[in-house]
Write the structure tokens for this entry.
Amino acid sequence: MYENPEFDENCDANNPKKIKYDDILAASRRIVGSILRTPCTRAHMSEKLGMEIFLKQEFLQTCGSFNERGVRNALMLISDEQKKYGVITATTGNHGIALCYHASQLGVPCVIVVPTTATFNKVDKCQKLGAKVITNGSNMSESKSHAMRIAKEKQMLYINGYDYPHIIEGHGSMGIEIIDQVPAVDAVLVPVGGGGLITGIGIAVKHLKPDTEIYGVTTDRTSSMVQSLRKNEIITLDIDTTIADGLAVNTVGVNAFYNLKGVVDKMIVVKEDWVARAIMHLVEDEKYVVEGAGAVTIAAIMAGLFPNLKGKKVVCVLSGGNISTTVLSRALERGMSAENRLVKFDVTVNDRPGGMADLCGLLAGIGVVMRDCVPERSWVKGDVFSVELQVICETRGLDHTKELMEQIKKNFKEYHFKDINERPDKSVGLRRGPCLAPNPVCMQK
């Protein structure tokens, strides 16, 4: 087994490492001055969501994510001899960016292996920070295998971004900050990919304030930790494209899986449509730009998955803000569509002078903004003096959309509206993960 080039002695399923609070405390002191102590302020959307929400703003870190905490701690603990050979990792982006940045600050050679699904902006940041970036594999598992083979050949240290013990200890420093910033916190909501972040935070928070509930949140496309906990063994999950690429870990960490039991109270799975809406509301209500992985905690609250936390003090970890402009624009439009603020419909109008102008005048009269309009003449049935318009409009919400529909029905004979969601505040098909608390009280009324 030890001759296996993919064997990682720091993340050995047969010998998982115990993560201790004392090591987390030491890590938090070690990285002081190198890592930003991020704000944890009360959210403007607290009243709307029915609980006192505090947002831990890890997207404000220099590299845009919480990953700097663990990376800095890990790099400060490696030997001078190992620093000569350098470090290597496989990553979907954020861990790699943090490793590149702090490795360059400490003069450590760094190689990053990314899957083909990694976003361009994250790969570009790694390259600009001076690291050698290798694209290999269609997912994290394949990229990790390639990176570990290089590590063995070049005597580089492979640093697992979600399971290396010193990484988890560094991430746990956030838990210490949370208790210091919100001493009366009732619950902490943490995004979960490979499990390193929630393990570190959970151990720290439970040590300092044992009655605080710890919830892990992931999406329906990145639920490898939930599936592993259900089967009580680590499984490999095929993950396709996801808005929460920072959580796209096929196989969770063995140290994380071993340590989070008894620390995390419950795992929650939220649909990705809610993540798009959460990104939109964080921009509109809080003026924060947060990536999909960082927005899952707010998404789960918006989706109604925490009725037990109504009226309580809740900290939501916004783990990162490295979202590409392309994904951001898509998320904003998807969110607006989900809340009936973007409306798509077809309507047939008179194809003579003034026909299209009548539609534009009607829309302007009720305050609806036309975002796009494509005329279709070739496949229209009936007389040749008609044109079908494929229209996308922006409204203020469901009531305004209903007013638009009434006016279209009143003034035109042929029309068709696409997928109007009558209950945009309600979610469908939500799932909960396994309850991990020794004495479950989290869902009691």
About this structure: Residues 438-445 have pLDDT under 50 and may be disordered.
